[in-house]
Known about the structure:
Elements: H1 2-15, E1 27-34, H2 36-40, H3 44-54, E2 63-70, E3 84-91, E4 94-102, H4 109-122, E5 127-133, H5 138-141, E6 143-146, E7 152-154, H6 156-167, E8 172-178, H7 185-191, E9 195-200, H8 212-221, H9 227-241, E10 252-257, H10 261-290, E11 307-309, H11 310-317, H12 322-335, E12 336-341, H13 344-347, E13 353-355, H14 365-371, H15 379-393
Parallel strand pairs: 1-2, 1-5, 5-8, 8-9
Antiparallel strand pairs: 2-3, 3-4, 6-7, 9-10, 10-12, 11-13
Amino acid sequence: MRKAILGLLLACILAVPTPALAEETSTTVLVYMAGSDLESETGSGSADLREMVKAGIPASGSLRVLVQTGGAKKWANDEIPSNALGRFQVDETGLTLLETQKDASMGKAGTLADFIAFGLKEAPADRYILVLWGHGSGATGGVCLDSRHWEDTLMPKELGRALREGLGGAHLDAVMFDACTMSCVEIAETLAPYADYMVASQALTSGWGLEYDRWLGELVQNPEISSRDLCVQTAQTYLSAHSFGVFSGFYAMSVLDLSKAEELTRSVGALYLALGRRLGAQADDVIGRRATLRSFGEFEGSDPSDFVDALRLADVFSDLEPRACAALRRAVSRMVVYNGNTNPSKGQAYGISMTMPYATAPWMYLIYDYYDPLYSSSDYARLIVDMAEEVERRNIAVQSGGDGQMLPKEEMWTGLTDEAA
Length: 421
């Protein structure tokens, strides 16, 4: 009898269905690597590819890393073609060439859009992360400079078009900029419809860039890590590896919550409208206050950038426009998930930059050519143009830069306005 009862109990236990093990979150990382002179002169791109291999990504698993290479006159890695675009899978075994494409500018929207569409089809996943690798010059200079094609770059409007066309309705969990001075309001606004988080620096970045073996290694060990935590770890590991900036004296890295971009856009527009009204009667005061703000991305002999920290700007003008500055502070504090700086007292980088002119040079054509078409529709653009004219009128000489090509109208940023594309 006892044996019969035990047998019945065993049969009941075996009959109870066991819950299926949950599948790991799958992640596809798309790295758009515009090598430029960073690769041809120092091999920085090839070094970062070695870091990716070092991360120990299984050849078959929940994490796929796809890289498109281009934009450099030569590559230190013999596996990478210099006269064509290369598409690779990177894992613990090394680089596997998936296909080559006809040489094209990495600074064109169509080139990025085609790679994104390829990546989504080749490696469908639960989560997508895009890394933009190369030279960056913020809102007025773009990102992913191509040394093979007239130093072409992706301007903000081109970047937005590439994401819209390449994603085709899909969404990115994060966009990471392994590039200088890309943490600015124009770029955040451009990315907001297409991504949840943004990792970028207000300052110049190290030529060796993000620590790919560490943050990709974290994904290997912990595939369920949230996108927010992964972005923060990416920023932290970068800062822990770079303690002192060669040109700027410091390094900085931020993580931005792009769902808060709309609030930031409104607050920036309101402050720049208020300051624009004051500029006519109080131009000397406004320009004098601007002169106290540090511009990021500048060093001896460089072009001026006129990218200033949003919180520092709010501090400088708070007694003139207390309500508008308080609203800007709130918007920045809600948007900046993480901000690190290797030298906070000197750097004064608190997460995100805004454009505010304080330089006269051949470089000033960028201000007029870039923002003037938005003069009638954007308070942000209107103040920038008016400030530039007031600075020129006073012949304030700061750092002079070199000349450059004029921006075609189709590459103009159309943000911080109802006409944003």
